[in-house]
Design a protein that fits this description.
- It comes from Drosophila navojoa.
- This is Protein decapentaplegic.
- Keywords: Developmental protein, Differentiation, Disulfide bond, Glycoprotein, Growth factor, Secreted, Signal.
- Its main location: secreted.
- With about 450 residues, this protein is an alpha+beta fold.
- It has two domains: about 190 residues, Cystine-knot cytokines (Cystine Knot Cytokines, subunit B, Ribbon), CATH 2.10.90; about 160 residues, no CATH class.
- It is elongated and about 90 Å long.
- The N and C termini lie far apart (about 70 Å).
């Protein structure tokens, strides 16, 4: 089979800037739920670390300081010396709540020291962490990932069938994608191939070559029928480059998800542009060399990346309501009078504002499968919504009316409540039971602003 050409069928951030709800210079009280916050949650968690997960280090957690965005002056920080841990029953409730939020039945049971985190996944996580996560979308240039909120990486599964492809320039790759939930919709899929540097003499003689990838749609039967292939993508690359080769294989993955029993894998072929001769040996890494250590090969092996959407998009009404309605309504003079009266209130009457709340995954016992982050700042809203509502309390017209009625007749309606008015998502890099590396964006996980509603 290696001597014949394949029969082709045509196939035409987390941000640290905070919306606050008071102008007082007194620091908001810190409430430490799971443990102290990291020294810098936004720090890149992959700097100066080995790519082997067993030696992988995420940012350490400072034992004393919780970095909280302060009130309007941003002038003070509070040191908390005692680490308060919740009791076991509370931890169970917390774990169950988080599992439901993450759409899991139980935490994965894995030995993460034997799993490699792909460099491409680390880079994508770092890219997301460098921007505000105001939606679930995961950016990926060149791919249709507009609404994808989950990325998974898969490694090649060895099989006896691979022995039928003895040449390094033409090889079968098989990826088990059954761990992708049926309810998720595939938005994109790419095959990434690593390249090794060539000697100067090799690079001069053959300057460019082609990498072709086929979907094996039917296996062959020796002496009876030839296998069938469907060309998916092709790339022309230079021999003097070591950049990763990315190939679009979404049609194949779509077919595998629809009919798992017909997943026969991909056929990758590497050949020169001048002729049908193979390209230099071992430039494109399709299989492990005989003298290559297993750990070294794990960093160079082919990888399949899938981009999916789980459909769990929440309403953006909380974010939009502040932009639509802004303050409490009324004229500017009324707002100023309310602000002046608010300034004359007693100091102990703390109005609605954002407070510190840090979720530490280690305290929940999840640090063995959550790679990054080690935890996150969730924050929460608490405080009074007194009459009259001040302009800085980010109130809706409805909240203004409700507060007015409550002031006239407290028994008729309750006061307006201090609630989140702006939320952001977080990005998580973790491992599942199938030893698959998953990068997922979760929407509305951290409070940015509070107001009376």
């Amino acid at each position: 089979m290696a001597k014949n050409q394949p029969k082709q069928q045509t196939h035409t951030k987390t941000t640290t800037t905070t919306t606050t709800t008071t102008t007082t210079t007194t620091a908001a009280p810190h409430i430490q739920v799971f443990g102290p916050a990291p020294a810098s949650v936004d720090a890149a968690p992959f700097e100066s670390t080995d790519t082997v997960l067993g030696e992988f280090e995420v940012p350490g957690i400072a034992d004393a300081i919780i970095a909280e965005d302060e009130p309007a002056t941003y002038s003070s920080k509070e040191i908390i010396k005692d680490k308060v841990k919740p009791d076991p029953s509370t931890l169970v409730e917390i774990e169950n709540s988080l599992l439901s939020l993450f759409n899991m039945k139980r935490p994965p049971k894995i030995d993460r020291s034997k799993i490699i985190i792909p460099e491409a996944m680390k880079n994508l996580y770092a890219q997301i962490m460098g921007h505000e996560i105001d939606s679930v979308n995961i950016p990926k240039p060149g791919l249709l990932t507009k609404s994808a909120n989950t990325v998974r990486s898969f490694t090649h599964k060895d099989s006896k069938i691979d022995d039928r492809f003895p040449h390094h320039h033409r090889f079968r790759l098989h990826f088990d994608v059954k761990s992708i939930p049926a309810e998720e919709k595939l938005k994109a899929a790419e095959l990434q191939l690593q390249r090794s540097a060539l000697s100067v003499s090799q690079a001069v003689n053959r300057t460019r070559y082609q990498v072709l990838v086929y979907d094996i749609t039917r296996v062959g039967v020796r002496g009876h029928r030839e296998p069938s292939y469907l060309l998916l993508d092709t790339k022309t690359v230079r021999l003097n480059s070591t950049e990763t080769v990315s190939l679009d294989v979404q049609p194949a993955v779509d077919r595998w998800l629809a009919t798992p029993q017909k997943n026969f894998g991909l056929l990758v072929e590497v050949r020169t542009m001048r002729s049908l001769k193979p390209a230099p040996h071992h430039h494109v890494r399709l299989r492990r060399s005989a003298d290559e250590a297993h750990e070294e090969w794990q960093h160079k092996q082919p990888l399949l990346f899938t981009y999916t959407d789980d459909g769990r998009h929440k309403s953006r009404s909380i974010r939009d309501v502040g932009a639509r309605e802004g303050g409490g309504g009324g004229n500017g003079g009324g707002r100023n009078r309310r602000h002046q009266r608010r300034s004359r209130r007693k100091n102990h009457e703390e109005t609605c504002r954002r407070h510190s709340l840090y979720v530490d995954f280690q305290d929940v016992g999840w640090s063995d499968w959550i790679v990054a982050p080690p935890g996150y700042d969730a924050y929460y809203c608490h405080g009074k919504c007194p009459f009259p509502l001040a302009d800085h309390l980010n109130s809706t017209n409805h909240a203004v009316v409700q507060t007015l009625v409550n002031n006239i007749n407290p028994g008729k309606v309750p006061k307006a409540c201090c609630v989140p008015t702006q939320l952001e998502g977080i990005s998580m890099l973790y491992l599942n039971d199938q030893r698959t590396v998953v990068l997922k964006n979760y929407q509305d996980m951290t409070v940015v602003g509070c107001g009376c509603r």
